[in-house]
Specification:
The complex is a heterodimer of chains A (about 500) and B (about 325).
Chain A lengths: L1 H14 L1 H4 L7 H10 L3 H8 L8 H30 L14 E7 L3 H14 L3 E5 L3 E6 L1 H27 L1 E8 L3 E3 L7 E4 L12 E11 L9 E11 L7 E6 L4 E3 L2 E18 L4 E6 L3 E2 L6 E7 L6 E9 L2 E4 L3 E4 L8 E9 L19 E3 L10 E4 L3 E3 L5 E18 L3 H20 L3 E10 L2 E10 L6 H17 L7
Antiparallel strand pairs in A: 1-24, 2-3, 3-23, 4-6, 4-22, 5-7, 7-8, 8-9, 10-11, 11-12, 11-22, 13-14, 14-15, 15-18, 16-17, 18-19, 18-20, 21-22, 23-24
Helix pairs in contact in A: 1-5, 5-7, 6-9, 7-8
Chain B lengths: L2 H32 L29 H38 L11 H23 L5 H19 L13 H36 L7 H4 L3 H35 L7 H20 L7 H24 L11
Helix pairs in contact in B: 1-2, 1-4, 2-3, 3-4, 3-5, 5-7, 5-9, 7-8, 8-9
Classes of the chains: A alpha+beta (about 500), B mainly alpha (about 325).
Amino acid sequence: MRTALILLFLLALAAIPGSIVPQRDVDPFAVGRWQDSHPTLTPIYEVLGLFSVFDSAWFSAIYILLMISLMGCVFPRLKIYWRGMRARPPKVPRNLARLPESRSFMLDADPATAIEHAGSVLRKKRYRVDVHPDGSASGERGYLREAGNLVFHFSVLVVLIGFAVASLFGYKGGVIVVSGQGFSNSLSQYDEFVPGALFGPDDLSPFNFTVDAFDVEFLQGGAQAGMPIDFSADVTYQEAPGQPERTKVLAVNHPLDLEGGSVFLVGHGYAPRVTVRDGEGNLAYEGPVVFLPQDASFASFGVIKVPDAVPEQLGFEGVFLPTYGFTMERGPFSQFPDALDPVLSILPYEGDLGMDSGEPQSVYELDKDQLDVLKKPDGSDFRLDIALGQTKQLPDGAGTITFDGVDRWVKLQVSDSPGKLIALGGVLLAIAGLLASLFIRPRRSWVRVSSRDGRTFVELAGLDRSSGGDLKDEIDELEKLLQQHADGPNREKS
Amino acid sequence: MTTADFANFSNNAIAFASLVYVLAFLSHVAEFAWGRNVPVTALVREPVAVGASSTSREVPAADEPVVDVSVQRVETFGRIGISLTVLACLLHLGGLVSRGLASDPIRVPWGNMYEFAVVGAFGVTVIYLLLLPKYKLRWLGLPVTSFAIVVLMLAVLLLYVPAGPLVPALQSYWLVIHVIAAATGAGAFAIGAMASLLFLVKERAERRGTVKTTGYIARLPEAKALDRVAYRVHAFGFPIWTFAALVAGPIWAQYAWGRYWGWDPKEVWAFITWVVYAAYLHARATAGWKGKAAAVIALIGFGTVLFNFVGINLFGSGLHSYSGLD
């Protein structure tokens, strides 16, 4: 027990860093940001596994030791319980008056009837009863308490198995899909993908879907104006190529459940549609670009990369403001999350985007090593504020950019957690066991009768085998039931 | 009534509830003030002293009339305190119901941190009032009313946000199940923590032999009885917490976020709370850990509940960020 206690404390302590240090499985971007601002601590934390505490060797060691200690505790008890369950109630102690609760009283009925009645009273109170030939009876009840306790400990293992199944055979992926575009369930389509240890890319179910439309409604007035009250996406999906197409409204709390995976709507944002022409007037880029929301006003950050522009590649970096506002103190900002007066506020760059080196690049970042920001003649940065529908000239004839429209995107999570029902069953079983082990009172009661002065002397005593039971009430009640017999032997039948 | 009327009504009801809790608190203070010079044995007939030392002591004859008046006052103020707590609890309920009606469409009144705090304080009061007759808990009147006052005050002053609809993530019937269970479990843990704290105080006094015949500590039930109440309340809270944190939460998380357990900061702390209370139950059955050590573990457990509510909601990030505060 002491070992288990210490391991429980260690487990609680070990979990704490998982809530303080950003976790790779929870928020990989947060991990990146944290590492950028703590260059000295990062290698140390990395070695300690603090960025994925719950997969780390030391965390696993603690819970595996706890499970071993649990099994070492439960198996011997299982044997004892098995023996105890089949055993008869213990013999009547010689001196009943010395037990925690005892009573004695006189009855008119003869001893043989009295002890037989006592046996039936105890049986009716769901005791396991032995009536001994010497005029005494022993009863024991509450066997399920220990059973509940054992079930509880056993079901912790069941939950762990459920967890293990999910982490071996499950997967979790995230993808941003611009409204109007489609997705098919294959590895290359995902922005991020975390497979289970035994999950291969070929195990992905071949479903596909198209996001037809996305609706979001923001609270227009009142103190909480700007809070989203509802958002949903209309999707058309196929369980597999060749299967009939079906539609579904995807919303938070309303996932699309498919064979081998479910699709969840977890976020949304804006993708401004732009057209970029290069210095020679060629169409160099056309289409939506995903910008990531920075706060509740949906001011969104993003970059536009135009590798096809000549003579030099073009890049843009800046913010998308769904409802433009401007003050001298704040500069441009977004007044409201809905796209009421959208403006792109961006800085143009010229040079080499660095996309040819072969190294993978984030689509949300510009590699500015070989890029120069375009300047005004006075030397200040050439910031462009482009309203919807406007076209702006870049300086020095570098080209033009047009803000054609606003698309919306949805962040979808596709995941499968097999074994979730095992885990759920395990927890429910644990609660059932817990209730039994906390609220069933294991008790022993004994009755002895003897003849005294022509009447029957009854001794009654009880023992509570758990701490803090209300034994007194129980013995009081037994006493009442036994005495009722004195008023007439047939009363018990009524 | 319009939603704005309901919102006003709710604010007023919560303000009045706080006021009545203060009056209830003052009655309990008066109860103990009057009982200051009354030996515990003189109060043995009234519920608050049940379980207290039953060794009879001679009360000096000359003091008897004074004692009689005081005994009566103690009883009266104790009863007034409980009546006022019931009244405050009803106002509190009114404040919660109208808060739900103040939103269009109407909803359960727990969607942001202000409301969680108000619901949490309500849970603690309700559990106290429900257990009061059976376990004779009037000695908890003082801590429970103080708790309600402090929580409501902090909620109104620091956490208040105007009534409004729910964010989409909370629009689910699991909000009803998950939060009711979490509030009930946490409420039970709060009462359990109060009982454990008083147990530690009383146990220390008993051990040092400094329990006087009068005063607050003397009028608490004996340490063994306090320990038993603490255990029962924790035993009631633990399965409910298990359900809230490890069944209702994960099922909802599966619907809302596509994973039933993801070690989000709030989940981490709910897990820590669960482990600490599991340790409490173990400690009670382990030689050398019974009593004092177990009570300390229970207090640590409640500390983790509070940290999860305050620390993670306000300073943490993660998916459970529903404080509604900027």
